[in-house]
Amino acid sequence: MTILKIVEHPAAILETKCRPVTTFNSELKRLVRDMQETMIEADGVGLAAPQIGMDIRLAIVDVEDEHGLIVLVNPELIASSGSQTDIEGCLSFPELYGIVTRPNAINIKAQNVKGQMFTFQAEGFLARAILHEMDHLDGILFTSKVEKYIPSEELERVDS
Ligand SMILES: [Zn+2]
C-alpha cells in the first residue's frame, strides 16, 4: 500500500466537479486501499479522490463506528432531514476548523468498489462526514459553509 500526498487548499482540483467512475477494476480497488491508508495515516474520518489529486467521484469514510470503512463510488443524495450544527475540519485545510450546519439524517445511494449499487442511511456525525466528502466530489469546500471559525487549540481533531 502507498501513502498518497493529500492536496491542500488552494488547488484547482479541490474546486473541480469530479466525473463519474465508470471502470470497476483492480486499479480502483488499489486506489481505495491507498486512500484508506492515507486517511488513517492523516488521522482523518474521510477522504475524497480530489484530495489525492484525482477528479473522480470516489470517497471513503470511516468514523470508527460499527460501519467501519464505507466506500462511496458515484454517491447521490436521495433524501435528507433535520439539521445539525457542529465543528468540522478538512485534511485539505490543516488546522482550520469551523462551525457548519448540515442535515442530521441522510439517505444516499452509491456503488461499491465492485460497481454494485447500494443504499445507505446515516445520521449525526456519520451523515456529516458523508456529506462533507460528497461535497468534495462537486468541488464544494467546507469553508463555503462555515458559519464561524474556531481556533484549533480549542478542539479535538475532526478532519475529513
Ligand atoms: Zn474535506
UniProtKB/TrEMBL annotation:
Keywords: Hydrolase, Iron, Metal-binding, Protein biosynthesis. One of its GO terms (molecular function) is peptide deformylase activity. The keyword Translocase does not apply. Fe cation binds at residues 90, 132, 136. One of its GO terms (biological process) is translation. The active site is at 133. Gene3D superfamilies: Peptide deformylase. It is an enzyme of class 3 (hydrolase). Its EC number is 3.5.1.88. Binds 1 Fe(2+) ion. It catalyses: N-terminal N-formyl-L-methionyl-[peptide] + H2O = N-terminal L-methionyl-[peptide] + formate. Its cofactor is Fe(2+). Belongs to the polypeptide deformylase family. This is Peptide deformylase. The gene is def.
